[in-house]
Design goal:
This protein has ten helices and eleven strands. It is an alpha/beta fold. The radius of gyration is 17 Å and the shape is globular. The protein starts with a strand and ends with a helix. The structure holds zinc ion.
Length: 277
């Protein structure tokens, strides 16, 4: 069965120095990063994968996103980019979003949860534990205010069948297509990818398991500013690098069956969303 899957950018981020962050362009102009989310139309319900920045973040960025994120990542804060606005623009009722599947709960991925208070929020159990009981260092990345509406959490940790050699967890039993959590720990304690079956092929939302498309090439490379950011926000370097190696192998051996992308690469987003670079 083929599904309608929409690629949504739910938050444009413009940190300084295009050359250092995007790898090309100007030293003086800001860069462009996206918050790549998916809206999946299934016969049973709408399913959202990640939420980017939400309407409350746009209205109260200082309180919800914090000073450091605002200063460093320089979000555009455009209400039209929020998932709820884009879902309405597509002609859907946001209340039909019954399930949200999250790669992790960093503030630039979980901000939109409050726009869908009735949805079940599927998350890998170690990630939920980290977000609800953060260490001192983790308090900078998980913002309790984004969970103040008490999301309908559905923690998952039961392992399912192997998926191309990765362990997998079926997130939404009863759904007519497979939406799998694929543990890819390292960026955060419980970070996962989300694999979505579409006809005979798969999409793998890699979340923040990597930041730049060049990471998956046989000779991996990435812009130095982005590499620094990846290091600065990692939780476990060894696991992060190990999982990147596994993703690189997956890309090399199964590119015709699995389309892999990450959350913040604007070129991957443009390719999949069908918009010009
Ligand atoms: Zn992120």
């Amino acid at each position: 069965m083929s599904l309608r899957i929409h690629h949504l950018n739910c938050g444009t981020l413009c940190p300084s120095c295009e050359r250092l962050m995007n790898g090309t362009g100007s030293w003086s102009k800001p860069s462009t990063l996206v918050c790549h989310c998916l809206l999946i139309e299934t016969p049973e319900a709408l399913v959202l994968v990640d939420t980017g920045l939400g309407s409350l973040d746009i209205m109260a960025p200082k309180a919800r996103l914090g000073h450091v994120f605002k200063r460093l990542m320089r979000p555009q804060l455009n209400m039209a980019e929020t998932a709820i606005a884009q879902i309405r623009a597509l002609g859907h009722d946001p209340r039909d979003v019954r399930h949200i599947v999250t790669t992790h709960l960093d503030l630039d991925h979980a901000g939109g949860l409050a726009d869908f208070p009735e949805a079940s929020v599927h998350v890998y159990k170690p990630e939920l534990n980290a977000a609800l009981h953060p260490s001192l260092r983790e308090k900078a990345r998980y913002h309790a205010v984004q969970f103040a509406h008490q999301p309908k959490w559905v923690p998952h940790d039961e392992q399912g069948d192997s998926w191309f050699g990765f362990s997998s967890i079926r997130a939404i039993p009863g759904l007519s297509t497979d939406v799998l959590l694929i543990p890819l720990v390292g960026h955060t304690r419980g970070h996962t990818g989300v694999a979505v079956k579409n006809g005979g092929r798969w999409l793998l939302h890699g979340g923040d398991s990597y930041f730049y498309r060049g990471t998956l090439e046989p000779a991996p490379h990435m812009p130095p500013g982005l590499a620094l950011m990846e290091l600065a926000v990692q939780t476990d370097s060894r696991q992060r690098l190990h999982n990147q190696t596994r993703l690189r192998q997956l890309a090399a051996t199964h590119r015709d069956e699995v389309d892999i992308f990450c959350a913040h690469d604007p070129v991957e987003f443009a390719r999949l969303a069908g918009t010009p670079d």
